[in-house]
Design brief:
Layout (H helix, E strand, L loop, with lengths): L2 H9 L17 H12 L4 H10 L4 H30 L3 H9 L1 H34 L14 H19 L2 H34 L6 H12 L14 H10 L11 H4 L11 H26 L8 H9 L2 H28 L5 H16 L3 H4 L1 H25 L9 H5 L5 H19 L9 H11 L1
């Protein structure tokens, strides 16, 4: 294919699902800064931050856990995912097909697409809570599992439909959308934190003359380190560290972002993920925590976690608007990834149509608040389920030839089911289940040993 043909294909909206991305379609560093800042400074941060407070975490454990855990996440993108992505320049799904065979990768793609649909659904849920501020319909509570009003269902349907349309136009459209929205969103999340601090200072009457005074307020009023709320798991430094590291495990260690960084000119562009980690998964989580802690300070019985009303109380109408747009910038690439997974099941189908259908599934999932209200556990679960195949790709790309074996075994042998990869996936998940079910190990901590189990098995 010559350069002119490549250019025409790119303009026509091709995402190069079953071929390496050509040089003419590669993107610069700025595209990834905007995408990661937009994706990870999102409406769901207004769910995760409050859930840390509900888990009774202390100020020191929260701040230091986020510093360490987010650094480990950035390093995982830089040294595990991006180097493979910029060498192979294939989607996760097509690369796995070469390794695992058509039948096994079909099973994986189905699991991957479903998990991403549920995750995108949680983001749609968050955006819909902002719509509820304006239209004043009944919204779900912390322990609700099902939709509880017609207004809620309609709001989710409208927001989810718009998100799906943007995602269907492809990665470059997503990157442009994120670049426009991200700077404004970051400022609003920063305002959330300062407003929350101001509210605490005014309500408590504590005099603030130094950073030490702010830290004292944080330890005694915001992240007090006491017992968690009823039904919540107590969080420590290690919980925060591993959650910050592994909440995006499917994307870096699980290699899903091969599909994103295959467009990157250089592998070091993965450092752009730090824009998401330290703006979204540090500043935004902390800001959201402050808002929820102040809600509990005002009324300890009001434990509902509703991002829209939280943002409205902090910043007026600008707050819910930020939540809606933040939900878009996060759900867009998530639906895009899920669409690629489902499109790989039927390679001749239109990626545009498949992504629209995927968005519809995510929208229906978003109508059920159970996923969002249990977001910490769900995020850990979806990373765990998809992680073993990331270990398979790592071994197949870097190590397998050192043992005198061939990479891309299924493609070379013509087999449709690579049992080495399949057993690595199934046995790893079984081992993780045993550790959680019988050894009492919490789900946040099983993924790290699970990666080594999967790599050694394969």
């Amino acid at each position: 294919m010559n350069t002119e043909q490549q250019s025409q294909q790119t303009k026509a909206g091709s995402e190069f699902e079953r071929e390496p991305v050509p040089k003419s379609a590669l993107l610069g560093f700025k595209s990834f800064i905007g995408m990661y800042a937009g994706e990870h400074c999102a409406g769901t941060e207004l769910m995760i931050g409050p859930l840390f407070v509900a888990a009774g975490v202390s100020a020191f454990d929260l701040v230091m856990g986020l510093v360490v855990g987010n650094a480990l996440a950035v390093l995982s993108w830089m040294f595990l995912c991006a180097p493979i992505a910029t060498r192979a320049r294939l989607t996760l799904y097509y690369q796995l097909e070469k390794i695992c065979g058509r039948k096994l990768v079909t099973l994986y793609n189905l699991a991957n697409g479903v998990m991403f649909c549920f995750l995108a659904g949680a983001m749609v849920t968050v955006s819909a809570t902002a719509v509820g501020v304006w239209f004043n319909f009944k919204m779900p509570g912390l322990n609700d599992l099902y939709p509880n009003s017609v207004g809620w269902v309609v709001a989710v349907a409208v927001v989810g439909g718009l998100i799906a349309i943007v995602a269907a136009y492809g990665y470059q459209t997503i990157a442009k959308f994120a670049n426009v929205a991200s700077p404004w969103m970051v400022l609003v999340f920063l305002v959330f934190g300062f407003v929350g601090l101001g509210q605490f200072i005014e309500a408590t009457g504590i005099e603030i003359g130094s950073l030490g005074d702010v830290w004292g307020l944080a330890k005694t009023q915001i992240w007090k380190g006491g017992a968690p709320l009823a039904g919540q798991v107590k969080f420590t430094f290690w919980h925060i560290t591993f959650f910050a590291w592994f909440c995006n495990m499917a994307m870096h260690i699980g290699m899903s972002d091969l599909s994103v960084f295959r467009f990157s000119r250089k592998s070091w562009y993965a450092v752009a993920s730090s824009a998401g980690m330290y703006v979204g998964h540090f500043m935004a989580w902390i800001s959201a925590s402050i808002l929820y802690a102040y809600q509990l300070y005002q009324d300890s019985s009001n434990i509902d976690v509703l991002p829209g009303p939280l943002a409205f109380r902090a910043a007026g109408l600008v707050g819910p608007l930020c939540v809606i747009i933040a939900g878009w910038t996060t759900a867009n690439p998530t639906i895009y990834r899920a669409g690629l997974a489902f499109q790989a099941l039927a390679p001749k189908s239109s990626r545009f149509k498949v992504t629209l259908i995927t968005g519809a599934i995510a929208t229906v999932a978003g109508m059920f608040p159970a996923i969002t209200m249990k977001l910490l556990g769900f995020v850990a679960l979806y990373g765990l389920i998809l992680m073993p195949m990331g270990a398979v790709i790592f071994v197949d790309f870097w190590l397998i030839r050192k043992f005198g074996l061939q990479s891309y075994y299924a493609e070379l042998s013509g087999k449709t089911f690579n049992w080495a990869a399949g057993l690595a996936w199934f046995v790893t998940l079984a081992a993780a289940w045993v550790l959680v079910r019988f050894a009492g190990l919490q789900i946040f901590f099983v993924s790290l040993p699970g990666w080594f189990v999967a790599a050694l098995l394969y």
